[in-house]
Amino acid sequence: MDSKLLGTLIASGALLVTGCTSRFVDYTIISTKNIDLSKAATFQRGANRTEGIDTAHIIIFIPTGNPNLKEAIDRAIEAVPGAVALLDGVVTSSFYFIPLIYGEANFAVEGTPLIDPALAPKRAEATSPYMIAALDKSGQVATFKYVSRSEYDVVKQQIAAGSKNRTGKP
């Protein structure tokens, strides 16, 4: 009797935890941005695929919103500097729910970015992990640029020397 009860409880628990993932659509090109198609010949295909997800949570049994497909597409495009669209991709819709505890519903968009070189940072800049930013008096970024390690080290030493002079320590 105990094994039947245990089996029934496990089967009931498995049925209560529901979830589903479905392939919503495959696409050749997708975008939510305004694209100047007169410059299409200059666009470049990105090297790596990118993904964007928009999720809505379900707490107890109350949804906190609906997942938005446009938001998922925007996040995927904006993850790559200079991207204006996604190529050869997939949109999936997922859902899971544990009754009276928690659940999620989401849209996931994956594709290869289509990059407008006029909007993308220069390749040499994008490969440098060193950046210098100058702030204005209100603390907002006034200027920003990628630099080489040697340029970064020079500015770092100048800042360090300036802070030592202000504190009065050598």
Detail the topology: elements first, then pairings:
Layout: H1 2-16, E1 18-30, E2 44-45, E3 50-60, E4 62-63, H2 69-78, E5 83-98, E6 101-115, H3 123-127, E7 130-135, E8 141-147, H4 149-167
Antiparallel strand pairs: 1-5, 2-6, 3-4, 3-6, 5-6, 7-8
SS element count, helices? 4
Calculate the terminal CA-CA distance, rounded to whole Å.
Answer: 82 Å
What is the molecular shape? extended
Mean pLDDT: 83
Helix fraction by DSSP (H/I, runs of at least 4): 25-40%
**What amount of the residues lies in strands?**
35-45%
Task: Please tally the β strands and state the result.
Answer: 8
The largest sheet, given as strand count, sense and whether it forms a barrel, is:
6 strands, antiparallel
Evaluate the radius of gyration: 25 Å
List the uncertain runs: none
- SSE ordering: HEEEEHEEHEEH
Task: Supply the helix-strand structural class.
Answer: alpha+beta
Oligomer: single chain
Detailed description of the structure:
This protein is of the alpha+beta class and 170 residues long. It is built from 4 helices and 8 strands, in the order H-E-E-E-E-H-E-E-H-E-E-H. Strands 1, 2, 3, 4, 5 and 6 form a 6-stranded antiparallel beta sheet that branches. Strands 7-8 form a two-stranded antiparallel ribbon. The N and C termini lie far apart (82 Å). The mean pLDDT is 83.
